[in-house]
């Protein structure tokens, strides 16, 4: 890439792990394309560390103790308008720190992987003129993502693109690229010998992922009936919840049909050797499962974006939702009752998944950047230039 490559600033948040993972996927793709001046900033953590720690704690605890409250707040604000007082308050957090970061790094382009949109307000205050990109990291579109000063939206599905257009986003500004995930999910890997040696090749392998913080409820009650099934074995990933990891290892005492891990980095290699996944319905994990062609089983999805993610994938016939171990186990057994149903699921997954999402996003950004006037003006709201080939 030549000397006029753009300087990129990616703004994310550390509520869960998905926004950071999406940011890292985009960063890796820019690096692969020869653009190395990329900086990732957890804006809320830098600007308001005490508030950030408190809200992160509340966010994580809400999944365990008050999921209905979180879901209520999410749903009543889903159609919020950017010019309303509540939106102005939300989008003002971090504005002063963002101004400092822009002075320090002098970016040419701002990318959001979390809907904390301080940048449009900052531009009006300071007269800055920079292209702004939103990468929506769920299969659901909350009003916090939508703002008239956003120049480009990248969303998970064609359905979400149409919804965005219905909610006022100009058609030329929104592209269904899929959610960006690590490049290794678009590659074929050799199985990890340490994992493979403990698996029975005659059984189907269920991957159970409790989330980055291991907050999925009732995991012990899920595992036991799965292990009682003669044709199933389980790989359980506990994330950063070391207590859960120790508890499972102690409870099941080295059961040959169960492997327990904490936080793992080689998720792609694990998914590629499994036959289905039980998980929380976060946007990144669901996109990874789709890339790996895994039927998805969603257990007790909490209200808010995760339940909306779950309902969307269920409507597409590639996910099942359950709220008790008996129902969940029955769904999994039904899937593996015959190869025909499993193949039917995989065909539906192929119809929805979008491989190489990060590559598509970065390719489109760079094509826009290296177009005639992108280095001297923002991507204006009235922009009617055709999208790059393949962007649709």
Task: Itemize the secondary structure elements and their pairings.
Layout: E1 8-12, H1 18-32, E2 38-42, H2 43-47, H3 49-64, H4 67-76, H5 85-92, H6 95-105, E3 109-112, H7 118-126, E4 132-135, E5 152-155, H8 158-166, E6 174-176, H9 193-196, E7 204-209, H10 219-227, E8 232-237, H11 242-252, E9 258-261, H12 267-272, E10 276-279, H13 283-291, E11 296-299, H14 305-315, E12 319-322, H15 325-335, H16 339-352, H17 357-369
Parallel strand pairs: 1-2, 1-3, 3-4, 4-5, 5-6, 7-8, 7-10, 8-9, 10-11, 11-12
Describe this structure in words.
With 392 residues, this protein is an alpha/beta fold. The chain folds into two domains: 8-178 and 355-369, Rossmann fold, CATH 3.40.50.2000; 186-352, Glycogen Phosphorylase B (Rossmann fold), CATH 3.40.50. The chain is 44% helix and 14% strand. The chain is built from 17 helices and twelve strands. It has helices at residues 18-32, 43-47, 49-64, 67-76, 85-92, 95-105, 118-126, 158-166, 193-196, 219-227, 242-252, 267-272, 283-291, 305-315, 325-335, 339-352, 357-369, and strands spanning 8-12, 38-42, 109-112, 132-135, 152-155, 174-176, 204-209, 232-237, 258-261, 276-279, 296-299, 319-322. The strands form two sheets. A six-stranded parallel beta sheet has the order 2-1-3-4-5-6, sandwiched between helices. A six-stranded parallel beta sheet has the order 9-8-7-10-11-12, sandwiched between helices. Helix 14 links the parallel strand 11 (296-299) and strand 12. Helix 1 packs across helix 17. The longest helix has 16 residues, at 49-64. It is globular. Mean pLDDT is 87; it is low at 380-392.
